[in-house]
Structures are given as structure tokens and as C-alpha cells.
Amino acid sequence: MASSYPPVKNSELIFYIGLKSQANPLVFQANPTLAAGDVKVAVDDGAPANLGTLPVVDADFTKRVKVTLSASEMNGDKITVIFSDAAGSEWCDLMLEIHTAAQLLDTMDTNIDAILSDTGTDGVVVAAGSKSGYNLVADQSGVTVGTVNALGTQAKADVNAEVDSALNTAIPVSPVADSVNERVKAIDDKLPTNYIMGSSVVTAKDDEIDAIKAKTDYLPAAPAATGDIPSAATIADAVWDEASVGHTDAGKAGAQMWTDIDAIAIDVAGLDGVAMRGTDNAALASVCTETRLAELDAANLITDVANVKTDTAAILADTGTDGVVVAAASKTGYALSTAGVDAILDDTPSAELASIPTTTSSLRLMIQFIFSYFRNKRTITSTTETLYKEDASTLLGTATVSDDGTTKTKGEIG
Prior knowledge:
Blueprint: E1 13-17, E2 39-43, E3 49-50, E4 56-57, E5 65-69, E6 78-83, E7 94-99, H1 105-119, H2 145-167, H3 180-190, H4 203-216, H5 232-241, H6 253-268, H7 282-285, H8 290-298, H9 301-319, H10 338-346, H11 363-375, E8 378-380, E9 384-388, E10 395-403, E11 408-410
Antiparallel strand pairs: 1-5, 2-3, 2-6, 4-5, 6-7, 8-9, 9-10, 10-11
């Protein structure tokens, strides 16, 4: 089979790759979507440009992508190919750097075969102990065969010593321009720390993945996993069972409700509940005179009562209840209507968080903080995690982080 290595400068190159899935970076993405602008190529550090031939998925291997670089896209000593999902939601970024050469190994092999043919040798490597007895056929121009053989032997020894010395000498910090050392050092400097040939995985990326996993372990296993989402009844119970502490500040609904209840208590404090029980009570009978009834009739009491009944019936229909008074011990199982639940879920905050909420903050602020934590920009160093506001530049809060090699610890954000 013909060789395609090393890649040849100014010659078309075809190769295959796999793109890691964003959903699970441990596997390649099956049938990855590739659109214009997803793959760019740069020649010798020039400006990146869209690939002339958009890579395509191999029909026989759905995780294998065929990449074709034209001769003009290969016309450089260093070719950089960058894969980046424009949609940003399917496969991971990938960068390849290709160093070109003047000819393929097959071409070199052909040239060596020609040299062997021209020199009349068979190309078989001879054991060191057997490399003797090679002589010129006859003396030439006064140079004896023995002299030539001796010079050749010494030259070979000198060259071997120089090569051994060069290979065993460390590459200097500043190699001579255009030397082999400079080119080898340039290649080594461009490789990331802990680079594994054929892979883009490095230790730093593993650390980032571990940090992300630690923060998402408490999310549902899948978007459809709703078992840990509280029901409408649970939310309603939590609202009604909430202590008034923390809800009595001016302008809050809790403060207004307590104000209204206190006013009602004052209004009914003077009523004689005992005297008002039963229609046959003497106190009630004393006010139910013909004169009083006539006054009530003149005040349209009957019309008002009819209007109240109509409104009550509408309320019962809207709330889906039957109007039957339930005993106190039986008042269980009530839940918000669908409209009520929607009203709570569709309510929008009036402004973004000004600061990190505390354990006594409102439920609204706590939910808003959870959203901000997972959506907004965050940066993590070896000692500090920083959370920013919506504009991605204003600080919202920080937390200390540490890792002793066994346990990763994140402090309270504040």
C-alpha cells in the first residue's frame, strides 16, 4: 500500500478524524453535523480561512470524518486545521498541526533503490563484525586501494562519533538559526504539557472536566427526570407554612396581609358572638321588626344578596369547588390550580441580583441565585471561584476553593 507520510508540501492531503461528543467527551460524535465555517485552515501562521472542501462523514463509519486539504491549502511548512462547532452544541473543538516535507517515504525509498542500483550494492545491512574486505577494484590515479580504505574507515568512525555526540547533547535554549536543533525545539514548544501523541487530552482539561462534574452531580440525571421537582401542593404548603419572620418589611405582600388581618381583628372585636347565634335568639329577634325589614328592603338588600350569590357561583366555577364547607380535620389534599401554578412559574424578577442571598432571604432571591450561578460567567483559579453578574464583568460573589490531592473543597459563596 502506498505511503502518505510525511505530508508533502503543495500536494493534496486526505486523512480521517473523529470528533468528540460534547454530551459525553469519552466517545466520538456519531454523524456529526458540519456546516460552512466549522473548519478553518491556516498556512504558516497566516489568517485562518474556511476549508475549500467541507469535511464529510464517512458513510460506512458514522464516527469517521473525511478531511481533504487542497494543494494550495498544503503549500506551507506548517498547516493548522481548526474544528469549532459554529452551533456550539454538538461536538468538541479540535486543532491539528501538520508539518510538511518535500517528499513521501515512498519517494525516498525509490531514490535509495536507484542509489543501490547505481553503486552496485544490494542494500543488505551487514553486521558490524563483518564489515571488512571491501576494496576498490584497482589503484586509481596514484591513490592506492589501501589508502582509500583506511581513509574511508577513519571517516566513518569520525562521522559516527560526531552523530553520537550530537544526539546525546541537550538542545540549547537558543539554538542556531535554521539548524535542526531550532526546528526540533520549535515543534516541541508548540506541543502542550503532558501531550499524548494522537490525542488532544491534557491534564489541565481533565481537571476542568472534574470541576464541572463536581458542580453538576446534583442535577437530574436527564432532562426528563422530574422526580425531585416539588409538586404544586408541596409549593403551596411551603408558602402557607412559611414563618412571618423576614416577610414583614414595608412593601412586601406578607406585611400587607398582616396589616389587613390586624384591621379585621379590630373591626370584629366588639361583636357579641353569643348574641348573634341562631335566628330564634331574643337579641336577633329584637331587631327583626317590620320597620327594620322595610328599611332593609328599601336599601335593596334582596338585590344585593342575589348579586352576591351570582358572584359566589362564578367563584365556585372558577376555582372548581362545590361550595360545601369541609370539616377542619378533612381540609387536606388542596393544591394550586393550573392557572395558579402558571402564574407563579411565569412571574419574572424585577431586577437581577444585587448581592448573594442568605439563608433568611426570600425564596424568589434564592431561586434567582441558583439560575445566576449556573448561567452567568464564572472563573475558577486554584484558590478562588468568582461569580459575575449578567454583564459578565461586574463581581457578584466569590468562594474559596482548594484541592489537597485527595479532596476538592469549595467554600460558601458570598
